[in-house]
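Async update (no meeting this week)

Hi team, since we skipped the sync, here's where things stand on the single-chain job. The sequence we agreed to prioritize is pasted below, unchanged from the tracker. I ran it this morning and attached the output directly underneath so nobody has to dig for it. Comments welcome in thread, and please keep replies under the output.
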Amino acid sequence: MRQKMSFLKNVFGSSDEEKPNNKMEWNLLTAMNQLDLIVSISEEKAVLIFKHSTRCSISRFALKQFENEFNLEEKIEPYFLDLLNYRDISNEIAFRFNVQHQSPQVLLIKNGVVVYDASHSDIVVEELKIYI
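Output:
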């Protein structure tokens, strides 16, 4: 079952200054077995994981900027990971995909492997287009 939501609206409230220009919908990454699903989906469509710390202002800024610029809904399936509540999943992502944990961090997965990995100010939506 897929859970979707506009993350900023539900976590940070719906005030106009917090709300991004678009209404990006995230698949929430909340269970370890979803990683197998992500690998499976990535065989047909690129999958993005955005790892976010809800207590970090840098992560919040990166998320808002990413959401405002994201326009690849038809080509990328986006998943959102709340690091504070699901650190065990983040650790498994680092192990399974052989990437160093960072926050904020974006991983793009195709055919079961990470093809793009960026963190902090290096997270750029335009760069994703190279890999899809």
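Quick observations from my side:
Residues 7-22 have pLDDT under 50 and may be disordered.
The CA atoms of residues 66 and 124 lie 7 Å apart.
Reply here if anything looks off.
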